[in-house]
Amino acid sequence: MGSSAAMAAGPGALTPWGAGNTRWGARRSELFFDRAEMDPNSHPEASQNPDPDLVFMDQALRLAQAAIPLGEVPVGAVVVRDGLIVSAAHNRRELDADPTAHAELIAMRTAAQVLGDWRLEGCIVYVTLEPCAMCAGAMVLSRIARCVYASADPKAGFMGSLDDLSQHPRLNHRFPVSTGVRANESSALLKGFFRDLRARKKMGL
Ligand SMILES: [Zn+2]
Predict the structure, then answer these.
(1) Residues 72, 104, 130, 185: which is the catalytic one?
(2) CB atoms within 10 A of CB 92
């Protein structure tokens, strides 16, 4: 299963960069935005520019959507530094048979490889679902600057739901978290995925 298969199987209008190809190299240049377009302050007509959080979360949502035809729970993530996307990934637990293959963890690993530094200082992680304990812990360890997530995960989220590792007083790194960006879209993707899964199981498929 390569990136071409992932692209072919995905919805026509949504062909996310790096979908199914989380360890990209040659495609790297395609992942970078024009910085001038992303910086609301770089334009005299600032009000016409979209909020960067919305733009980057849209990219994470596209990745989440691309995970659905692959049988993966639709969660997507992008790592951004200085207004540029450094890495992008969707959940790959089934594909890789790896319990740690969560979207944001893969994106953080890739970002560290791209940047040549395990410290992701100055990086913002955008993810469509509230990070679990493992991913929130990895964000502390990699010293990210900020996390933005879309929908909360009341069953496993460790950035506000069950606990909050981003603000733990005894850990050596804390960072701000923004929530609710494109939450409805993310929630709809997840609900639709699990509804279809239940329906298929009921039909014995
Ligand atoms: Zn996780």
Answers:
(1) 104
(2) 22
pLDDT at 49: 74
Whether residue 92 is predicted with pLDDT greater than 50 in this model: the reply is: yes
Sign of CA pseudo-dihedral 51, 56, 59, 65: negative
Please give the Cα distance from 70 to 46 (Å, whole number).
Answer: 39
Binned at pLDDT 50, 70 and 90, residue 27 comes out as very low
Torsion, CA 71, CA 147, CA 55, CA 69, rounded to 10: 0
pLDDT tens for residues 135-172? 999 999 999 999 999 999 999 999 999 999 999 999 99
- In this structure, how many other beta carbons lie within 10 angstroms of the beta carbon of residue 121? 12
Residue 144 three-state SS: coil
Cα–Cα distance measured from residue 82 to residue 50, given in angstroms and rounded to the nearest whole number: 16
Q: How far is C-alpha 2 from the chain's CA centre?
A: 20
CA–CA gap between residue 175 and residue 168 (Å, rounded): 10
To the query of whether residue 45 is one of the catalytic residues in this protein, the response is no
Q: Is the pLDDT of residue 40 over 50?
A: no
Residues near ligand 1 ion, CB 5 Å cutoff: 102, 132, 134-135
Ligand 1 centroid to residue 134 C-alpha, Å: 5
Q: Phi and psi at residue 93, in whole multiples of 5°?
A: -55, -45
At 8 the pLDDT is 34
